[in-house]
Amino acid sequence: MSNLQVVIPLFPKFTALDGIGPYEVLQRIPTIDVTFIGHQRGEIRSENGFLGITADGTFDDFPTPDVIVFPGGVGTRPLATDEKVLDWVRHAHATSTFTTSVCTGSIVLAAAGLLDGLTATTHWSCYPELETRGALPVPERVVEHLDRRIITAAGVSSGIDMALRLVELLVDRTAAEAAQLMIEYDPQPPFACGSMATTTAMADGGTSVIERVIEYAQLRQ
């Protein structure tokens, strides 16, 4: 019996952990193969340009993967009007076991018409963009529509949670717990500001955490 084929699409200005987080979980399972794919093979660099990951295949090479994990990043915006990518998503989803996204990867799924009228999630700052494409944004870390074979995860780190759930669905709970233990995923963050619901503290000098997030995002553009 052949291994399950998981593909993680890459594109210029992707967010690294959106793809690497799920990769670290899924590649631990012996019955799962993970391939990074893109428009063409070769190195593709993350949103700040600091990191490059090699795409070992193209969209054309993997027309019918078992699982899609579509990461996010500012580079998803051009993909929302890239008919080659959107057609691939639609075609691949028709036969996939699960089609999933992390962060603004859900914007691509929505642009392809997969999330029309469905609750879905993305990074908290991008709910309006997701809504304009027909989805119903909700502030949940992982949103499942198993009858539609669709799972969306919120911002960046939530992709790890989503991938663990995928392992449970694809294999079993013990496999998922084994993957969690192997990566020692036991979050104990030093600050309680990992979501909009818990972020109330002020940073040094009286600047709010949200203002600092906006400031850093603008400086990185």
How would you characterize the overall build of this protein?
With 221 residues, this protein is of the alpha/beta class. The chain has 2 domains: 4-187, Rossmann fold, CATH 3.40.50; 189-221, no CATH class. It has helices spanning 16-26, 76-79, 83-93, 105-111, 127-131, 158-170, 173-182, 209-220; strands at 4-9, 32-38, 42-45, 52-55, 57-58, 67-70, 98-102, 119-120, 136-137, 142-145, 150-153. Strand 3 and strand 4 (52-55) form a beta hairpin. Helix 1 packs parallel to helix 6 (158-170) and helix 6 (158-170) packs antiparallel against helix 7 (173-182). The longest helix has 13 residues, at 158-170. The protein is globular and about 55 Å long.
Helix run count? 8
In CATH, the architecture of the largest domain is: 3-Layer(aba) Sandwich
The shape, in one word, is: globular
How many structurally independent domains?
Answer: 2
Q: Strand count, sense and closure of the main sheet? A: 7 strands, mixed
Distance between the amino and carboxyl termini? 46 Å
Order of helices and strands: EHEEEEEHHEHEHEEEHHH
CATH superfamily label of the largest domain: Class I glutamine amidotransferase (GATase) domain
Q: Compute the average pLDDT.
A: 94
Strand percentage lies at 15-25%
Radius of gyration equals 17 Å
CATH topology (fold) name of the largest domain? Rossmann fold
Strand order of the largest sheet: 5-2-1-6-7-11-10
Spans of at least 5 consecutive residues whose pLDDT stays below 50 are none
Structural class: alpha/beta
- Helicity range of the residues? 25-40%
CATH class of the largest domain: Alpha Beta
Number of strands: 11
